[in-house]
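SAMPLE LOG
Freezer: B-3
Tube label: C17
Construct: single chain, 352 aa
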Amino acid sequence: MNLELLTSQLRAVTEAGDEQHWPADGVRVLREAGCFKHIVPRQFGGDGAEPAAQLAAYEAIATGSVALALILTQHDAAAEVLAAAAPESVAAETLERCGSGEELLTVGISQVTTSRRHGQAAMRARHDGEGFVLDGVMPWVTSARQADHIVTAAVLDDGQQLLACVPTDASGISILEPMRLLALQSSWTSEVRCETLQVPRTWVLRGPMESVLARRAPVKGLTVSSVGIGMAGALLQEVRQLADKLPGAETLLVETIEPRYHVARRKLLDAASSLHDPASESPAVAVRADVNAIVNRLAATLMTLAKGTGFLSTRPAQRLVREAAFFLVWSAAPAVQAETLYRIWDAPSPDG
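STRUCTURE (predicted):
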């Protein structure tokens, strides 16, 4: 996979596209490059990419298009769960279609991770013979109207959870219109509702058990950071082109901005290289907070240098600045939120 060429192709289709529409041309580029089968195990026709290669691909793709990186990460998150569940029939068959490039997956699990609804389970499950019935909502599902299957999570009355792979055309599933977002509208992120959705046992990937997401791929903790550092790279390219427009900005770029970017990227690469070391403690939260801070500082720098021209809706600067804000909310657990704020304001963290 030629990552430099992929970045260039995705940047071109993004700049030529319309934020309001599904990025069909960009998805085609990803598919032709083999991205949708990149992490699918080899026995199912995929590439079985190692975590470091997976994260490097996310960085390159995000430099070209954050929306397409988001679509891919959600597909990969679903594929990883399916791979862990194989050789169960639904998982194996779906992975084989992913390996041949026929299938687009996504996840709808925020209802048991970072999204809560008044303390009540947003997606509920109950036993029904040998299977289950699901009722409730998946608050955030990227590419919901384009995906073939959604990996979702639900909670039973006793507090146990299950993961299931459900086809998007199943009776009982309603996919709402894509939400109106500050940025990344082309990701077609929607709320998905389930009403008496019949889930046969063969669709269940994990559980019922106490926490179905306790076992996740080690790469997961660095996924958002890898996309974020790719976003930072795109912002930095724009900043470099404008730095000579303001006295002193080039010095700031060379002496402060670029060194901070490289430090944040180096920390991410070091964390990625130690994923397979069981003795290594993952610094995922610290890395994520560093990336969040550099992304949003670069966004502010870009708009400052671009001035009024950058504020025009026809210019890439305003799009990049809006997209930078997404990293403040994407999979932002309280620890990530807190550490991000400490870094943005150069305040000492209570955790050191």
